[in-house]
Design goal:
The protein is built from six helices and 28 strands. The chain has helices at residues 27-42, 44-47, 50-54, 60-70, 251-280, 311-320; strands spanning 4-8, 11-15, 21-26, 75-82, 88-95, 98-105, 110-118, 122-127, 134-139, 145-150, 158-159, 165-172, 179-189, 195-198, 202-207, 212-217, 222-229, 235-241, 301-304, 307-310, 333-337, 343-348, 352-355, 361-364, 368-372, 378-383, 387-392, 405-412. Strand 9 and strand 10 form a beta hairpin. The chain is globular, with a radius of gyration of 24 Å. The strands form six sheets. Strands 4-5-6-7-28-3-2-1-27 form a nine-stranded mixed β-sheet. Strands 12, 13, 14, 15 and 16 form a five-stranded antiparallel β-sheet that branches. It is of the alpha+beta class. The two termini are 37 Å apart.
Amino acid sequence: MPKIAYLCQGQLFLLGDNGVPVEVTSQFGRDFEERQSKQRQVNGWKEHSGVWGNMGFTPPQFSQWQEAAGGQRLIRFLGVDRGPAPGQLSYLLGLGRVTGLFSYETGADLESRLFHRNDFQAADLTQHGKLGTYAMSVAQSDATKHIVVADPDGRFPRDITAGDTVDEQPRWTDDSARRLVYQSASLMRNQAGFAVGLGPYSIQSVDLDRQAIDEVLASDDYDYLQPHPRPDGSLYFVRRPYKMRPDRTTVWTDMQDILYFPFRLVRAVFYFLNFFSMMFSGRPLRTAGGPERPDGPDTRLVMLWGQMIDTRKKMFDRSSKDESAGLVPRDWELVHRTKEGQETVLQTGILAYNVDDAGSVVSTDGRRIFLQQLGGDAQELAKDRFIERVVLLGDAAESRPASGTVTASETAHAS
């Protein structure tokens, strides 16, 4: 079984034959955390000045915000893809407002920083299998996202798409040409110019040599996501029904809202007053049990390419009705389309997938990872909390340890 890399809630893991995930940590990220910690220690006196600081306390109106920020994870893996050589992968690392592009050799445990910059919100990383050229989706200040390409050493990033669109999930073709495909949706804006929705996702193709963009697949009824072209002219993609608005509520749900309205109104007024009490006196109005504190980040509602997914509802459905239910609905289908236009549904309920040169497909429904060899059935390999992306790696990754945590050692720097 080949090695598999996957992202789970901003963390990067390697999965091998034994099915035990091994977390990969960035040495550059660890150094960044240490610098941030030292900076907070040096500037800590500013937070403890004045009357409260002389007594060794933080002013009550700021203490709860500082405690909440203390549990925030600044370092997140934003994208990952396999490199041109076996056992090589590349990833985007988010460090607060800074985003960096890194290359990592799994066999030698070697991390190379290619570049990093401020206010560069990149994701959906992909690397050309032969040329080594990078492509990624970069968010703009006007709510659009455009495809950006960079040289194999990470230099000279440049936009190749434009317009009032959301362009994501680029994927290079497997030949030596400089062509890639990506998913694209038009933004819907109100009269004030604010983005209020997305049109259906279509699949577009861009040729960097001809400087031309062509439409590959589009429909008013479906979203076409995560395109992956093959050398034989076929195409893999995820298809789902297009929904412009959230699902309508039932009559029973509307009746519950009316029944609970007085209680919710009283609770809202209480928490409004409790907020001012915490701000000005540092004391909550509710004393029983102490103030509520979340155990971690709120991941109940997740926006996936324009559709809101209620993860808590999915967990309820899984435990009570369908043990095989994933994070996304069953109508999210992984489809293989031949050059002649014949389509075959390979799997259902798929959130993300990846295809290697041999035609093996690794996929995830958000909680489980599946591997489907060419001509075989999908087999479940592992489970995790919220799997965002999966990637098949080459054979060089087999030299990695069986369990534990791998720390990527940074040996090259280039800004």
